[in-house]
Every structure is written in C-alpha cells, then in structure tokens.
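A protein record in our archive is deliberately plain, so that people and models can read it alike. The record that follows is passed on verbatim for readers who wish to inspect the format.
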Amino acid sequence: MSERKLYPSDLSDEQWSLIEPVITAWKDRHRSVSGHQGAYDMREIVNAILYQGRTGCQWAYLPHDLPQKSATYYYFAAWRDDGTDQVIHELLRCQVRERSRRLEDPTLVVLDTQSVHAAVGVPAATTGYDPAKRVPGRKRGLAVDVLGLVIAVIVLAANTHDNTAGMVLLDQVAEQTGGTVRKALVDQGFKNQVVEHGTGLGIDVEIVERDPAHRGFLPQPKRWRVEQTYGILILHRRLVRDYEHRTASSASRVYWAMSHVMIRRLAGTNTPTWREVAVRA
C-alpha cells in the first residue's frame, strides 16, 4: 500500500490478511490479455469502498489519495455482480460464528424490515411509499442469527408488503444455509402467509407479539438482535438513506458494511464513533 495518512476506515495488515486470499484469487482469475495488473493496489480499492460506505460520500468526492472513482466503481460493480462481496461476507461470518463456538450456519434466524428514504436520482420504478412508516423510498429486509450476523439481505420498493419481503428472505435463508435453519422469529408486521411459506421450507415461523399493556420500545428476547444490527448498519452513512440506482448495489453496501464490522471484530479493533472523535477534538 502506498504511503499516505491513514483513514479510520482503512484496513490494518491483520485485517487485510483476513480477506486478501479471496481478492488475490479473484485477481488471478481476471488477468488482462496483456498481463497488465492494473494501476491500483487491491487493498486500496477495498479501502476506498469501505471509506465511502462509512462516510457516505459521493463517488466524485472520494479523496485524491484513494483510487479514482472509475477504478473503485469498476471493482465494486464487478464484485457485486459475481458475488465476491458475498463470498467475503460469508467467509467472515463463518469465522465469527466459529470463534463464538457455534456451527458455521445457524438453526434460528430473526427477520425484520426497515424502510429508508431514497435519494434524489434513484429510479422511481424501484421505490415506493410505506404508508405504515410514512417513508418514501426503499425497504431493506434482513435475516440475522442470534449473534446479529446477516444471513440474508433483500432490497425492495418501500410499498412492498412485509409478507413478500419475508417470503423472499426465507427462500434466501434456506438456500444460504443448506437447510440448517429450523426456526424464524418475526414481528406482527408479518402474517400467516409467511408462516405457511416457512412451513413449506421446513422452517417454523413464529410471530412474536408485543405485550399490549406496554407502551414504547421493549426489547424482545432474541428478536432484539435484528434491531441491533440495523443500528450498527446506520453507523455507515452510505446506508442512512438509499443512494444506489440498483437494488443490487444497495444489498452489496449492506454486505460490505457487515464485512467491515466483522473484520474489526475478528481483529479485536473498532472504528471510533463520532462521539469519541468529538471528545478527542
């Protein structure tokens, strides 16, 4: 990596070593006809993707000491389209679970959705209005395990019913885990249609109901993990609202954000929050 002042989102040597084999193998499979390896170090490309995800800056506003927009976007799109971003994410997820003395794939997942505003310029055909949350934009759906690690991601128009999101998530969960998941917890926004769909996949879907006597937010056993994951993702400013033209790019941003979280967890490091930075200043 070239000598420059480090950004808080940059990968350390230890962190880079966790994903370098995947990136190196990808690069070996995609050699140019001329044999030219490109002008940028792959670690710097990843640093640029992580920087943008963490800060939320526009492509044209990437710092001059990081790879140019054209190069960074080329690799972001290539890894999105061929699933390399998910390969990296799955590799890290399995390592985090194993470190927690759990099997690679879970037996229980928690499903939930989150509606976020869409930025100006996002195609109207991929957005909608969520009347329940009064949000015009897109809807993210997550399936997470009891550690809060992401198992499946979907991005749909905000007016998509939670039933549809839930069924798609269950399909992805069954495919991603090879059928190890036997139970899924959902909130009251999901209906019997999701329960029936889960039965067909061999997954027992339980609708967790709130105590009607309790007002305000009340963490529910195990289900709170998905809320925690959404909170962690929002620390990555690119996810505060949906800026991506393609829903596949929106999903890729989630994978990269969670990969960044898991990399730091495995290396025993953490990115300072804005509160910590403000105190130091």
Q: What stands out?
A: The first strand starts at residue 108 and ends at 117.
